[in-house]
Each structure stands twice: as structure tokens, then as C-alpha cells.
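The records we work with from here on pair a chain with its fold. A complete example follows; check for yourself that the lines match position by position.
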Amino acid sequence: MTNTGKERIKASIKKKITAYALVAFLSSALLIISQRPSIASLYAKSGHADFMQGFVVGMVIAIEIVCVYQISKYINALKDEKKLIRIYNELNDERLCQIESLSGKSAVEFTAIVLLILALIVSFISFEATIAFLAALTILFITKKSCSIYYTRTYSGE
């Protein structure tokens, strides 16, 4: 492998390290913000506030664990050329990319159907929950269409 190839791989891995570090920082900031008493006072019942604070703490811990693991894996790969090439090949394996593409397409369609069914069921119970499900569906469709437009323009030259 040429030096420019190695440098390109290292630059790609360094971008991933930076992205994971940014996610870890933002999730830590969310944790700090969520612990403020002014945030807890927004909930009508203290039980809801306690649940949401616990949920945020749990999610931040999970996100931090994943980020630290990925950062350490990529830093170790930068030190060892074999690991670096293996990780780069894993990230750019055409078969895995195709499998992820197909599974992602199915997952989005399945999620849209489930959200629509849940919105219909919940519509008899809570207007706010129905609106939340419909908002999630709207965001899902906007995201899917935006990604479709971006990748069509990127890879088809349109």
C-alpha cells in the first residue's frame, strides 16, 4: 500500500475518532443539562421527572461506553498498520455495504408501518401521543427522502 493510501486511511479514521469524541462530549453536556432543577420542574409529576432523568443518565452511559470503545479501537488501529488496514477494509467492504443498505431499507419501511399502527392505536387514548407518532413518521419520511436525493445526486451525477 502506498503512503498516500495510508494517509487517506488514517485521515478517514481520525475523522471517525473526532465524530465519536463530539458525540461523547454532546451526550455529556446533555447529561449535565438534564440534571438541572429547572428541567425537572417542567414535568407535571416528580415521578415523570425522575424517570426521564434516569432514562437520560442510562442513555448517556450507554453512548459514552460505545464512544470510548470505538475511540480506543481506532486509536489502537492508528498505531498498528495491520489493524488499520483491516478496519478500513471492514468499513469499505462492498458486500457489507450492500447488506446494510438492504437491511436499512427494510428497517425504515417496517418502522414506518409500526409507527403508523401505533399512531392509530394511541389515537383513542392520547391526542399528544398521536401527534408525537405522526411527527416521528414525518421526520422519518423527510430524512428518507433527503438521503435519497443526496445519494442520487452524489452517485448518479444528476
Summary: The helical segments are 3-34, 37-40, 46-79, 81-91, 94-122, 127-156. The mean pLDDT is 83. The longest helix spans residues 46-79.
